[in-house]
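To close the chapter, one final illustration. This time we ask the reader to focus less on the individual chains and more on the assembly as a whole: which components sit near each other, and how the overall shape emerges from the parts.
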Amino acid sequence: MGTDRKDEGPLDALIRSLAGLPGLGPRSARRIALHLLASKTEVMAPFMAALAQAAESVHTCRSCGNLDFSDICRICRDERRSRQTLCVVAGVADLWALERTGAYKGRYHVLGGVLSALDGVGPDDLRIASLLQKVKDEGIQELILALSATVDGQATAHYLMDRLPAGALKVTRLAHGIPVGGELDHLDDGTIVTALKSRAAL
Amino acid sequence: MGTDRKDEGPLDALIRSLAGLPGLGPRSARRIALHLLASKTEVMAPFMAALAQAAESVHTCRSCGNLDFSDICRICRDERRSRQTLCVVAGVADLWALERTGAYKGRYHVLGGVLSALDGVGPDDLRIASLLQKVKDEGIQELILALSATVDGQATAHYLMDRLPAGALKVTRLAHGIPVGGELDHLDDGTIVTALKSRAAL
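The assembled structure is written out below.
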């Protein structure tokens, strides 16, 4: 209700639950709760049905960690995709971002996050053991570490590098540089320095 | 999945449903869907339970349009609140904002929106008939029109003014002026002109 803070009712509980979702705060949570409750049959019921349907039918792929409707996801099952190239991403959102480009024809491995001392994420919290096993068992030739260019992302990449078998396996990372369409003026110094160092001949 | 747009699965349906909520777009909807699905038992299940609980137990007050757990809301039932003063607000969020101040001790009437030619909201879409009835039946002495200082809000206020009984009923609106803590420099001309015209003696 918002009038009496002593007794948390179902409405406060819903607002608190919404406010805990990524990107939402108390104000946007209140707005969404009111929107849902204002039309229970037209908005709230279909929303709850969509949630229930997704909760029931969406599974994490046993092989790569992607989300899909079967135990082994569509990408892992797709025979046209190269088995020799494996792209390591932190999360499913990163996998989707790469898929949207349509430029990658190998398979993926979703770590489920990056190592982070601050957030208490250690190697056992991520799908690292299964990645190393996969590299060993499946004759992967190239491993693309598509991790964010943040401190934690790069620490994770280094951690993996140290544990990957030396030799035939080629390990690459995404290129650093100026984003396409990006203005020099708005970029941080680190990006400009990297772009300068990796400059290409015209 | 995001890889194949032809077949919309439960995941796409959930993302579309989330993206339809106020303040959310496709990107934030994707992020929330992944957050929910990443921990079904710890995040998604409690969230769905909070939704179901709110859907079941939160009702619209028959008298004022507020949301509460009974047919007649706590504010309408509160005998300490003046029956002579009625504050007209567009939505429940506005009612909550006024309640948070603790400065108002009368009752409310939630219109459920404002008149808007652009959005196709006419008088019959709002709780206007029941407001006029209430004013007639319950001996209201002051009606505070706490509507937004927007074109639609002010048009709604004028519409109500035209239909309210002339005579004993005192109709007021919230004061216009400089927000407390507001800097002159950042305010629009209209607000400054209004504040100047309504200047108060020190």
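The CA atoms of residues 62 and 150 of chain A lie 28 Å apart. Chain A touches chain B through 55 residues (CB under 8 Å). With these observations in hand, you are ready for the problems at the end of the chapter.
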